[in-house]
Specification:
about 260 residues; Cyclophilin; nine-stranded antiparallel sheet; two-stranded antiparallel sheet; globular; rotamase; Cyclophilin_A-like; isomerase; Cyclophilin-type_PPIase_dom; Peptidyl-prolyl cis-trans isomerase
Length: about 260
């Protein structure tokens, strides 16, 4: 027969186990809610409690793999591997803040182009132009796609894990009144002033707090991004959040001044 003391201990143990389960569930929910792009993932983009830090994304940084094409027109990525160069400090300001800069993302699925606002986000544009000139983005895989609540494709990490960076960080910019309508290009981060190389492309109007530096506007390829989003993602980080089913790799990334 179970004594009253044994029963009391059993109930106490069961209560403790329920509390632990509830705490774990609450922590997981908080992590998903706070996962806004961290440059370390993401959000969105995206990464407060960085998805990258949780190892949500995995890939071979030396040899981008090609999944079966889910989007018509997509092909295998060009041969090559990210150079994963590292720098200890932000690059010297070399851009003309009065000029217009255009970025061309040549992906295995087609081209995406966007203009960059050097006057409102000079450090961000200067860093992007510098990294592109160093071929830093070439052969890197877009590692995150979100399809519920926020609608972005996140790229710029040579490790495709969500935790990659060029080794330096720089300040946030252009946040006052920032919004993220379709066509916006903005920086991913892991908290205030932690920008590195990761950025996200907004393919559908998205509601986000003004915490991510918007620095560009897509001028070509938005239809392509929507097709990639339509192919889905693997829910690796939760419903509507994971790596895209259609592999997207930058063959080259270049910038021009006009």
């Amino acid at each position: 027969m179970v004594t009253s003391e044994q029963r009391r201990r059993q109930l106490a143990r069961e209560k403790y186990e329920r509390q632990q389960e509830n705490r774990a569930a609450a922590a997981a929910a908080t992590k998903r809610r706070n996962a806004i792009i961290a440059g370390s993932v993401a959000v969105v983009v995206i990464a407060g409690a960085s998805l990258a830090a949780s190892g949500a994304f995995s890939s071979d940084p030396k040899k981008p793999s090609a999944a079966p094409a889910a989007v018509k027109g997509c092909t295998s990525p060009a041969p090559g591997a990210p150079n994963n160069k590292q720098w200890s400090t932000e690059p010297t300001m070399n851009i003309d803040q009065k000029a217009t800069y255009t970025a061309s993302l040549d992906t295995n699925c087609g081209a995406v182009t966007f203009t960059m606002d050097a006057s409102k986000a000079p450090h961000t544009v200067n860093s992007f132009v510098f990294l592109a000139g160093q071929n830093y983005f070439d052969h890197t895989k877009c590692h995150r796609l979100t399809t519920q609540g926020i609608y972005v494709l996140q790229c710029g990490d040579p490790t495709a894990s969500g935790s990659g960076s060029p080794g330096y960080k720089f300040t946030d910019e252009n946040l006052t009144g920032a919004t993220y309508p379709a066509g916006t290009v903005a920086m991913a981060n892991s908290g205030p002033n932690t920008n590195g190389s990761q950025f996200f492309l907004v393919y559908k109007d998205t509601q986000l707090p003004p915490n991510y530096t918007p620095f560009g506007k897509i001028t070509g390829g938005l239809d392509l991004l929507n097709k990639i989003a339509g192919a889905g993602e693997n829910d690796a980080n939760g419903p509507g959040d994971g790596s895209p089913d259609q592999t997207v790799v930058f063959n080259t990334v270049t910038t021009t001044k006009s």
